[in-house]
Amino acid sequence: MSRPVRDPVLPGQESVWDYPRPPTLRRCVLPVRVLLGGETICAVRESWQVLETSHPPTYYLPRAAFVPGALRPASGRSFCEWKGAARYLDVVGGDRTAPRAAWYYPEPSPGFEALRDHVALYAAAMDACLVDGEQVTPQPGPFYGGWITADLAGPFKGEPGTLSW
Length: 165
What we know:
0% helix, Metal Binding Protein, Guanine Nucleotide Exchange Factor, Chain A, mainly beta
């Protein structure tokens, strides 16, 4: 497997190629807001980011910060070799429902205990996800849940041709 050519890192940016594997957690103290169906369904000032080589951060938001009724249990499970067994949620806002657009770890693996009672969202399924007022770009691909902001340099896993990264 050959590594891709890194994008240039501009002033104020960090490269996702400097993130570790296995992934790590980082506390985020930037405000995050999520909109769906024309409504703000979550607004927080603290969250967790999972950082992994070649991926933009995946944001985990406190479950208690979501408006009542915004998260509903959904079918399906998956397993992450680092974080453990995940369960899925439908996300509801206004007159919209985004099926299986969120996931969480009821019993996170050692090292990821801080993710308990936190939820990650697929940004592409929301009206908007904002970090410090900036609307994020969803990580490419149907599986990954990272959020791309202007302070990141790629290239990012999920783009065409990145399956073997």
